[in-house]
Design brief:
Number of strands of chain B: 0
Order of helices and strands of chain B: HHHHHHHHHHH
Structural class of chain B: mainly alpha
Distance between the termini of chain B: 30 Å
Largest interface: A-B, 30 and 25 residues
Strand content of chain B: under 5%
Strand order of the largest sheet of chain A: 6-7-8-3-9-10
Strand content of chain A: 25-35%
Number of helices of chain A: 11
Oligomer: heterodimer
Helix content of chain A: 25-40%
Number of helices of chain B: 11
Number of strands of chain A: 14
Helix content of chain B: over 70%
Distance between the termini of chain A: 38 Å
Shape of chain B: globular
Bound molecules: adenosine-5'-triphosphate, magnesium ion
Largest sheet of chain B: none
Order of helices and strands of chain A: EEEHEEHEHHHEHEHEEHEHEEHEH
Chain lengths: ~325, ~250
């Protein structure tokens, strides 16, 4: 449904999006995840034909954003970062205007406006001026505006930004209920949002895609990469932390060993392993064979938060795990 | 066509949702009414004077009242234009609604034409108020109505041209006030160009050709000249073309 290939966007000085590629298939709901300034909005603006790319290509439903923008625009519903609302209009009047602009025939527009008002729970404010609406209602009107012409693709830029927790839940449910019929890309920097609403996640940082996977796989993959916490106690100072660390690093499959804590001759390490390798058994044996006490050995689950930090953290030397 | 009308209706609604449109209409009604009063008063006095002196004063209402009035209206129009066009694109850029317009399945030119048309309709509505003054002439005399029509066609063309320029300027900034001030400056400049028309250098000729007021002169006399019509139509075309380019470059640049 959406295909992005080697897409780049350069502003006067900054490279906002740098050679990104990804694909979204029909009916998928994809989270576009990244810290501030990662290039999420820029990518979305290119997909919606608001900005032209500097290099690369993007297509929606088989239509290229540069050569067939009108066809692309017909198939996209877009909620920009700030909902594009006219404060002097009534909600109903506004939806009517947007609907007509998106090509809904006059004969259907009234029912369509009623339908989306119902769907986005703005029916009770439909005769209010938009300038009098609260932030949450504005966001909902923005969402109603995006889905009014029943587009194949929905592009939502931070749809839950600035909402209270209850409204966030409602909005997420609404978005989820829209999936299936629509292909959805939503951007966010909130991780639980991706976990809860999306099937797939594209993590971008500094204009580059750093990970693309299903939410399930991504968490599993990184969790499955066996971060192990272990506490070692060499009898009566027979070994220092450096010595233990060295030994642990020699266990096959171990990619990184970090000293977390050392107290009263007990050392806590966190050991990361290469993907798909189970190292717990080898670690335990290695410690015991050295004659040290193994007080604790447990798998450390990485939260999505940590994965996110790990993937987007620029400073490689600093340990992202447990950085909080 | 349908899209132009959708945009145009929305713009007109916005105009009348705020006090701008009403304010402009009231302001214009007052000023044009005052000018009309002064012009007719002078005309009537001249008539009485010449009668008393036994001369036959040519009592041509069209020549004396209509023409003078239309010239005045054309100048007041210069002040109205910036207030009508300043918000057209600047406001959409400020609030981000431009993103909605540009990502909707409509062509840029349809958006531009719709906005310009709405501005022109508001301007025409305001002109209509001034025409009410002239209606009084028909109650008390028999002015020739054809030159009046030609005069109003001229006002509409003059307005259309300046509105197109104002629309263009409105795309260049997020700030309504800047857009309005710049438009006013440009309108004034195009008007002032007329003052060099007595000079014969090439520059002066070019400048006076560009003077929007000079091209209005024949209209106010009831003379329809294709040269002037073409001038205004090309100004409108140029203004809207620049608007389209500006909208496009806006996206390419930022
Ligand atoms: N109009 C612009 N002109 C110049 N630079 C821009 C412009 N818009 C964005 N940028 C820059 O491009 C980069 C990416 O910005 P973008 O808005 O796409 O990030 P984002 O992922 O949406 O961030 P956020 O989470 O804060 O919304 C940033 O470094 C930003 O400063
Ligand atoms: Mg953003």
């Amino acid at each position: 449904m959406i295909k992005v290939e080697g897409l780049s966007k350069r502003y006067a000085r900054t490279v906002a999006v740098d050679q990104i590629s990804f694909e979204v298939s029909k009916g998928e709901i994809v989270g576009f995840l990244g810290p501030n300034g990662a290039g999420k909005t820029t990518t979305m603006r290119i997909l919606t034909c608001f900005l032209p790319p500097t290099a690369g290509a993007a297509s929606v439903a088989g239509f290229d954003v540069l050569t067939q923008p009108l066809e692309v625009k017909k198939r996209i519903g877009y909620l920009p970062e700030t909902p594009p609302l006219y404060p002097e209009m009534e909600v109903r009047e506004y939806l009517y205007f947007v609907g007509r602009l998106k090509g809904i025939p006059k004969s259907d527009i009234a029912t369509r406006v009623d339908e989306v008002s119902e769907r986005c729970a703005v029916t009770d404010v439909r005769t209010k001026l938009i300038s009098k609406l609260s932030k949450g209602y504005r966001q909902r009107v923005g969402l109603a505006q995006a889905i009014i012409h029943n587009p194949d693709v929905l592009i939502l830029d931070e749809p839950t930004a600035g909402l209270d927790p209850k409204q966030i839940l409602e909005t997420r449910q609404l978005i989820k209920s829209l999936s299936g019929a629509h292909t959805i890309i939503l951007s966010t920097h909130i991780l639980p949002e991706v976990e809860q609403t999306c099937e797939k996640v594209i993590i971008i940082s500094k204009g580059k895609v750093v990970a693309t996977d299903s939410v399930h796989n991504l968490t599993n993959r990184l969790r499955g990469s066996e971060a192990v916490g272990l506490e070692v106690e060499p009898p009566q100072g027979s070994a220092g932390s450096a010595e233990i660390q060295q030994r642990l690093e020699q266990v096959p499959g171990v990619s990184r060993v970090l000293l977390r804590d050392s107290r009263d001759g007990r050392y806590t390490f966190e050991v990361e392993s290469l993907q798909g390798r189970t190292v717990r058994g080898d670690l335990a044996r290695s410690v015991v064979e050295a004659g040290w006490n193994l007080n604790e050995l447990r798998p450390v689950a990485l939260s999505l938060e940590e994965i996110f930090l790990q993937l987007t953290s620029s400073d490689e030397t600093q340990s992202p795990v447990g950085a909080k | 066509m349908k899209n132009i009308w959708i945009i145009c209706r929305k713009e007109l609604k916005s105009y009348f949702a705020s006090p701008i449109a009403y304010g402009l209409m009231a302001f214009f009604a007052a000023i044009s009414g005052y000018f009309f009063y002064v012009i007719t008063a002078v005309f009537v006095q001249r008539g009485i004077q010449s009668q008393m002196m036994g001369q036959s004063f040519p009592m041509d209402v069209n020549e004396w009242v209509v023409r003078g009035f239309l010239s005045n209206v054309s100048v007041i129009g210069l002040f109205l234009i910036p207030m009508i066009t300043m918000r057209l694109f600047a406001e959409e850029k400020r609030t981000g609604t431009i993103e909605l317009l540009v990502t909707s399945p409509v062509k840029d030119i349809e958006v531009i034409a719709g906005k310009w048309l709405a501005a022109l309709i508001l301007y025409a509505g305001i002109l209509l108020i001034s025409a009410l003054n002239l209606a009084i002439l028909f109650l008390y005399g028999k002015p020739d109505w054809k030159p009046i029509l030609v005069g109003y066609l001229g006002l509409l063309l003059l307005g259309g041209a300046l509105l197109a320029i104002g629309t263009f300027i409105s795309t260049t900034t997020k700030n309504q006030i800047i857009a309005g001030t710049a438009t006013f400056a440009v309108c004034l400049l195009l008007w002032v160009f007329d003052w060099v028309s007595y000079e014969t250098t090439t520059w002066a000729k070019v400048m006076s050709y560009l003077s929007v007021v000079a091209h209005f002169e024949p209209f106010s006399k009831g003379v329809l000249d294709s040269k002037d019509i073409i001038f205004y139509l090309s100004m409108i075309f140029l203004g809207l073309f620049l608007t389209a380019r500006s909208l496009e470059s806006l996206r390419w640049r930022s």
